[in-house]
Amino acid sequence: MNPNHSGSEILENANPIISVIGAGAMGSQIAHRLFQSGAGPILTNLDGRSPETCKRAAASGMKDTSYADIVSRATYILSVVPPRDAFAIAKIIADTVKSSNAEETTPSQPRTKLVFIDCNAVNPSSAKQMAKLFVNTSATFIDGAIVGGPPSEVYNPGLYICADPNNQAVLDELEATLEKYGLQPFSLKGEGAGIGDASAVKMANSGIVKGTIALFTSMILASYTSSPSTSQGLLHSLHISQSTFINQMIRLVPQMTPKAYRFVGEMKEVAKFTEDQGLEDIGCIYEGAARIFQQIANAHEARGREHGRNPVYRIGERSEHDEIDVLLAVIENARILEAGEGGKSWGPSFK
Ligand SMILES: NC(=O)c1ccc[n+]([C@@H]2O[C@H](COP(=O)([O-])OP(=O)(O)OC[C@H]3O[C@@H](n4cnc5c(N)ncnc54)[C@H](OP(=O)(O)O)[C@@H]3O)[C@@H](O)[C@H]2O)c1
């Protein structure tokens, strides 16, 4: 066990003990919201984690301890890690439950049953694979998904949860607990509901929101490649036919460029989701979305190599224009158009 672990110092109280695995942009803010709302110290495991993650964990009321300690103390474990690590974390918890004889209780220390919630952007079949790890253990698997940005003073993302039909009471208790501690849970129940549905919400939401960003990006690039005036014509045509698209483009496209690398995997998951639902011909749309995001991610990385990790983009800064130059130039034109500053001849392509 890590010598810095302070599991034995953690004060237990009447509240259910909550653990959040993953102190990234999302996990740390979920933990912070729980902690600030009175849930007590939030257990986590920081073995092998980066200094940035350890810093975020400390600032969010998280306490580093071993997986064995987490499994023996916690009632709820939320996994909030990159999707590629989701299965590995579920397996660690399931294996720890099995090997820790967690079922054993003593009259003086009755154990509360453990509930593991996978909150990651995976497709429903991955969630079902994870659920299998918990069959014949004392722990209950809950499929979860987060839609929206990390919790903040002014914002609360949606946390969608669902369970096997036999575990509806556990789901209700989880929903009440998350609500009590300041999160915004939404449980999926009723006819036909079960494991995979929360992940399906995430996939369908991503398919619409990030799929739309991929369409905007592709058509901006394609029209500009045809000629700069084609991209201006495109913006004008959207302005007179679908003006809300202009507003969405301005809002969504520039903020996508540093996150494009994350969207690649998510679009591949959405492709698998559509294929699993019997929409085999639709998967290729999202494979294409993954490829366009990969192209933007490559441009972003190349800029990072040139300018440091978080480059500030300035149109015209470079002699050769990459995809990000083009996107930002066209979006600037969209802003000019939306602000009503241009007539027929609005907007330069590059300054
Ligand atoms: N950020 C958002 O706005 C958002 C929105 C909706 C849903 N989500 C979902 O939330 C999940 C996490 O996303 P994020 O944005 O928070 O990612 P992130 O900022 O990249 O952070 C991931 C965190 O997980 C840690 N981690 C990686 N592998 C781990 C492991 N094996 N055990 C424990 N910790 C591990 C990383 O630590 P290191 O620093 O050491 O690598 C890092 O702290 C994803 O499934 C994502 O789809 C995020």
TrEMBL record:
Family annotation (InterPro entries): 6-PGluconate_DH-like_C_sf, 6PGD_dom2, 6PGDH_NADP-bd, HIBADH-related_NP60_sf, NAD(P)-bd_dom_sf, Pgluconate_DH_NAD-bd_C
Gene3D superfamilies given in the database record: N-(1-d-carboxylethyl)-l-norvaline Dehydrogenase, domain 2, NAD(P)-binding Rossmann-like Domain
Domain Phosphogluconate dehydrogenase NAD-binding putative C-terminal: from-to ranges: 231-295
Residue ranges of every copy of the 6-phosphogluconate dehydrogenase NADP-binding domain listed in the record: 18-152
UniProt record similarity statement: Belongs to the HIBADH-related family. NP60 subfamily.
PANTHER family referenced in this protein's UniProt entry, alphabetically: CYTOKINE-LIKE NUCLEAR FACTOR N-PAC, OXIDOREDUCTASE GLYR1-RELATED
Protein name, entry field: 6-phosphogluconate dehydrogenase C-terminal domain-like protein
